[in-house]
Amino acid sequence: MKILVTGGLGFIGSHTVVELQSKGFEVVIIDDLSNSSEKVIDGIVAITGVKPVFEKFDLKEKTKVQDFFKRHSNIAGVIHFAASKAVGESVEKPLLYYENNIGTLVYMLQELSAMQTANFIFSSSCTVYGQADKMPITESAPVKEAESPYGNTKQMGEEIIRDTCKVVPALNAIALRYFNPMGAHPSTEIGELPIGVPQNLVPFITQTGAGIREQLSVFGGDYPTQDGTCIRDYIHVVDLAKAHVVALERLVSGKNSENYEVFNVGTGTGSSVLEAIQSFERVSGKKLNYKIVDRRAGDITAAYADTTKANTVLGWKAESTLDEAMKSAWDWEQKIRK
Ligand code: WQD
């Protein structure tokens, strides 16, 4: 069964390609390499022994998207990762984000709407909940006004898919709302490759541990949490990748109860920034140089998932602990610095 993975050489995309191939799916990747490298294919081959088909182009080129679907008439499902994801950059360049994330989604859905039957998985985010009123967060929690154009592209993306599914019954879609993905494949063949100074906590921790950054700034020590630092739901990227495969299997086997569904993908456990640092110190045996500084604008106090829906309906559950995920991130960091 042939699956198109857009952004399949990126962080979450590449791990999902591995899980798909391990389950016998045939994978075709489209990636423009804007935030990834063709070398990732070697890592995928090293793990699975299978080389995915790769086409390099930008999904903003609508005629190329149309041409792709003319050449591949037998795509059983699409997992759509390709998007820009830097929150700060999206504030500076909103139109870039709307064009990259919304324009390309529309082109993709236009092609899928013309097919006899189509299955589509969308990368959404817990960012749609903003600061939720109740923890853990269920899928029925209200979607709050987006804090950034990036966050808005995820909210709008969900709405665009939902509206399309209403009028295209042959289109089946699932939006996965990711919490905080981290870690790397245990083989250390693939992992996260942040460009420049990492904005996210875990790569900043591992780079500080590796001596590339001098000190981690912990943004805020006065939040109303048990240790004063923010709480997040850190999920191992391999667990997240597996959630895509089970979501896709639900669609291709026709087991979905509605043609548009939404699932939280997290562990269900909240961890504070200080707990993440302690985890790093445990698995690396190193002391981390960190300092508590002012809060970062736009940060919410806490977000962790109620995963009941994914557990019961998809039959999926995150398996890795924070320490296991942190160890994989640290192993990867050490490998890429060699
Ligand atoms: C985690 C915690 C920081 C860096 C991201 C995306 C968002 C969404 C979820 C996207 C926070 C603290 C961080 C540092 C720190 N998903 N921190 N020092 O903020 O949950 O959001 O993931 O698709 O859009 O931006 O993740 O990793 O940036 O931060 O203290 O140097 O670590 O304040 O509490 P966040 P993060």
TrEMBL record:
<dbReference type="InterPro" id="IPR005886">
    <property type="entry name" value="UDP_G4E"/>
</dbReference>
<protein>
    <recommendedName>
        <fullName>UDP-glucose 4-epimerase</fullName>
        <ecNumber>5.1.3.2</ecNumber>
    </recommendedName>
</protein>
<comment type="similarity">
    <text>Belongs to the NAD(P)-dependent epimerase/dehydratase family.</text>
</comment>
<keyword id="KW-0413">Isomerase</keyword>
<comment type="pathway">
    <text>Carbohydrate metabolism; galactose metabolism.</text>
</comment>
<feature type="domain" description="NAD(P)-binding">
    <location>
        <begin position="4"/>
        <end position="327"/>
    </location>
</feature>
<dbReference type="InterPro" id="IPR036291">
    <property type="entry name" value="NAD(P)-bd_dom_sf"/>
</dbReference>
<keyword id="KW-0119">Carbohydrate metabolism</keyword>
<dbReference type="GO" id="GO:0003978">
    <property type="term" value="F:UDP-glucose 4-epimerase activity"/>
</dbReference>
<comment type="subunit">
    <text>Homodimer.</text>
</comment>
<dbReference type="GO" id="GO:0006012">
    <property type="term" value="P:galactose metabolic process"/>
</dbReference>
<dbReference type="InterPro" id="IPR016040">
    <property type="entry name" value="NAD(P)-bd_dom"/>
</dbReference>
<dbReference type="Pfam" id="PF16363">
    <property type="entry name" value="GDP_Man_Dehyd"/>
</dbReference>
<keyword id="KW-0520">NAD</keyword>
<dbReference type="GO" id="GO:0005829">
    <property type="term" value="C:cytosol"/>
</dbReference>
